[in-house]
Design a protein that fits this description.
Oligomer: single chain
Strand order of the largest sheet: 1-2-3
Helix content: 25-40%
Number of domains: 1
Distance between the termini: 22 Å
Strand content: 5-15%
Largest sheet: 3 strands, parallel
Structural class: alpha/beta
Length: 143
């Protein structure tokens, strides 16, 4: 398998990297994974899956290194569910495991950039993103 990261930055998961001329590098899009898959296929490795070892969206309004591409909590929740749906509908059968970044560590505070990627609070309370994911699973929207 090929391990990849699929951070969406502040772009919706379905946005094709080449559809926004002059706007950042293709790695700033969830669908960058498709470009990595094309390289994999070009080198005869098309029979192997791609696993997303890390993907998600941050809501960080604090840390300047990350806040420039932050999304709202509502967008984060929506984008995460849409990313799973998009991958299932568009990337099967070559997409494998998708690791959503992340569940909060009990010691994280708002000063930690990871805190803002989390779908849970440090005490384990679900954030909107986790609630949306759980609801999509419960309703059958996501398998």
């Amino acid at each position: 398998m090929l391990g990849a990261h699929g951070a969406g930055y502040n772009n919706p998961p379905e946005t094709e990297p080449s559809s926004v001329p002059g706007y950042a590098h293709p790695s700033f899009y969830f669908r960058r994974v498709e470009q990595l898959r094309a390289i994999q296929e070009a080198y005869g490795e098309g029979g192997k899956q791609v696993w997303l070892l890390e993907f998600g969206w941050t809501t960080d309004p604090v840390n300047p290194s990350y806040s420039w591409y932050a999304v709202s909590a509502e967008q984060q929740a929506d984008y995460i569910v849409r990313a799973f749906k998009f991958a299932r509908e568009s990337w099967s059968p070559w997409i494998g495991v998708m690791f959503l970044w992340t569940m909060a560590d009990a010691h994280w505070t708002t000063e930690n950039e990871q805190y803002w990627w989390s779908i849970s609070e440090p005490d384990g309370t679900p954030r909107l993103a986790m609630q949306a994911f759980q609801a999509a699973r419960a309703s059958g929207e996501l398998p």
